[in-house]
Write a structure and sequence with these properties.
13 strands, 7-stranded parallel sheet, binds uridine-diphosphate-N-acetylglucosamine, 6-stranded parallel sheet, 383 residues
Length: 383
């Protein structure tokens, strides 16, 4: 039996998550353990070469069958644009047996809502994540997507517990984290292929890697406090490398044009996946508000300071790899100094990662879970 699936992606973290699943589908099809015909739809939420195309090339993701070209806009405009285009595609001859969505972006939400209303079963990869902070657009996207999904593929025990406590346990399956798969597969590839260390003239453990992009961090006053903290850290002697997301660049140039980076704080363009992974792997620490980078740091055995008041990836904290520092300057500086003063046991961090996030076989388990689900459903429908 052929299972026809459509995978919806649109934003940078989703390219990272879909790559191991595409590879696992193609391996399972070759081995004859699955027969899945997957069609990739790119919503166009991210469209710059450095935010999108580079990821397809480096992660060897099959080219999308279509790019909806939705681009930027308010949440409503962006989500509605995606929904309108997706409804046309999925309602006609392109109707799949299942729709797969990833993570918590507006592309995730749009795909899940359209499919649910067309009675196409929805599979959510990275289900059950909760920050319990509804001011985050991603939290709204997660809650709604999980509610309307039929198969909830959870990365961690915590995610399973969250789903059970919302009455969604019956649809949930613990498969592990596909981002762990991606890091285990690509860490050595990044060491071999990326020249970012020499390009930027960096030494192993001689710098910290910084990223900031979330809506909550990029309000001008909040961003200024974060940048001041980074400047204070740089002045104390550790070099900071800061690839800047377009949203953050926009706020910096429109509202913080008087702010100048001190020496030792290097602002660069967004990086591709392999360059970014190489830097996470080589950094003394990572300073970020990204969900994915908190995990990628742990998976590489690099400590992380998170510029948020909470994290949905509580395992990174339990593993001893992540300090939640908030967005106030003094706390950020203190947290960074605390990490710099500590001896880091990278091997212990990496083995904790496997305990919490699985053995790097999440994508394989996802393919099995999807196949079982589709068979059970067809059997159920025929009966
Ligand atoms: C989105 C996701 C977030 C994810 C992040 C990764 C939502 C609600 N948020 O946030 O969960 O962590 O992607 O990057 O879906 N822009 C460009 N070029 C691009 C993409 C964006 O210039 O290729 C600019 C546009 O001005 C846009 C702004 O960045 O308005 C924000 O982009 P958007 O996709 O709305 O949200 P992200 O901040 O990227």
């Amino acid at each position: 039996m052929t299972i026809r699936t459509v995978s919806i992606v649109g934003a940078r973290p989703q390219f990272v998550k879909v790559a191991p699943v595409c590879r696992a589908i193609s391996l399972a099809n070759q081995r004859g353990t699955a027969n899945i015909e997957d069609r990739l739809i790119h919503t166009g939420q991210h469209y710059d070469r450095g935010m999108s195309h580079v990821f397809f090339e480096e992660l060897e993701i099959p080219p999308p069958s279509i790019n909806l070209g939705v681009g930027s806009g308010s949440h409503a405009q962006q989500t509605a644009g995606m929904m309108t285009a997706l409804e046309k595609l999925l309602a006609g001859d392109g109707r799949p047996d299942l729709l797969i969505v990833y993570g918590d972006t507006n592309s995730t939400l749009a795909g899940a809502l359209v499919a649910a209303k067309l009675w196409i079963p929805v599979v959510h990869v990275e289900a059950g994540l909760r920050s319990f902070n509804r001011a985050m657009p991603e939290e709204i996207n997660r809650i709604v997507t999980d509610r309307v999904s039929d198969l909830l593929l959870a990365p961690t025990e915590t995610a399973m517990t969250n789903l059970r406590s919302e009455g969604l346990g019956a649809a949930a399956d613990l498969v592990g984290d596909v981002m762990h798969d991606a890091v285990l597969f690509n860490r050595d590839r990044a060491r071999a292929r990326s020249d970012v260390m020499s390009r930027l003239n960096l030494g192993e453990r001689g710098f910290a890697l910084v990223t900031i992009h979330r809506a909550e961090s990029t309000q001008a006053d909040v961003l200024r406090r974060i940048l001041d903290a980074l400047a204070a850290v740089a002045r104390r002697g550790i070099e900071l490398v800061f690839p800047v997301h377009p949203r953050t660049v926009a706020v910096m140039s429109a509202e913080l044009s008087d702010w100048r980076p001190p020496e030792g704080l290097r602002i660069i363009e967004p990086l591709g996946f392999l360059d970014n992974l190489r830097l996470i792997d080589a950094a003394r620490l990572v300073i970020t508000d990204s969900g994915g980078m908190q995990k990628e740091a742990l998976f590489c055995g690099t400590p992380c300071v998170t510029l948020r008041d909470e994290t949905e990836w509580v395992e990174t904290v339990a593993a001893g790899g992540n300090v939640i520092a908030g967005r106030e300057s003094a706390r950020i500086v203190a947290a960074v100094e605390g990490v710099l003063d500590r001896v880091v046991d990278g091997v212990a961090l990496r083995s904790a990662a496997s305990r919490y996030f699985g053995a790097g076989d999440a994508a394989e388990r996802i393919v099995r879970s999807i196949t079982d689900f589709a068979y059970a459903r067809r059997g159920g429908l025929a009966a």
